[in-house]
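Section 3.1: Structural characterization of target chains.
Under the original work plan, the team committed to producing a structural model for every single-chain target entering the pipeline before any wet-lab resources were allocated. The record below documents one such target. The sequence was received from the expression subgroup and is listed exactly as submitted; it comprises 267 residues.
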Amino acid sequence: MSAALDVLAGKLGGLSPRYGIVLGSGLGSLVGQLTDAHRIPYHDLPGFPVSAVSGHAGEVVAGSLGGVPVVMLSGRVHFYEKGDASAMRLPIEVLKGLGIETLILTNSAGSLRNDMPPGSVMQITDHINYSGMNPLIGEESDRRFVGMTSAYDASLADKMRKAAATIGIALSQGVYMWFSGPSFETPAEIRMARILGADAVGMSTVPEVIIARMLGLRVAAASVITNYGAGMTGGELSHDETKDMAPIGGARLAAILKEMIAGEREQ
């Protein structure tokens, strides 16, 4: 971790970011709103994992968003790529080493609710780890026993809701269920997820929440809804649909996050 941290810190020109943001599909518009941006490819950072998933850029982008210094991970590595739930541990540890105290996680997800259509945004209030995997398996210290009762920080959640209201963008709230992927869920699995209390399903984010909480970071998270769950419309799901729909909700989520972070300027 120290080698990647040293390289990254050396390229940021003294920037001390307050927020870290992991960008899922469709959040490229948020990167474009940074001022004085520094771009560092993951390839240049020792040990950083590089995703092979289309739509994930694979670079660190740091700068000022709404007057607040932030650092973004543009692209993530998923569990399904190599079967490693801890794939994002080193990048998150590096962000922690840069001094961030808050991590905002974003993803694209499938909706289980008719009132939450593709293109909408859902604030994650809790999650269900249906995959059964955990990024802390193999951790030898007692840090592995992470409490998850308040995994999603209530104060940050309130700020996100207020930011959405201020700019007039609808923001749903709900529970995110993590499936391992890479295949999409079956209609039967979607029916099960709804019975268990999930509002959206996806293939990421939960491992990063667990890692962040182990590191003592405050966490907020949101999903860009790209499709309805399998069996809800009769059509087949595809990654192309995700990539096509993600920018629509992504622009809305980007606006919410910019407003939310800009509100921290004087704090």
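Residues 2-262 form a domain with the Rossmann fold fold (CATH 3.40.50.1580).
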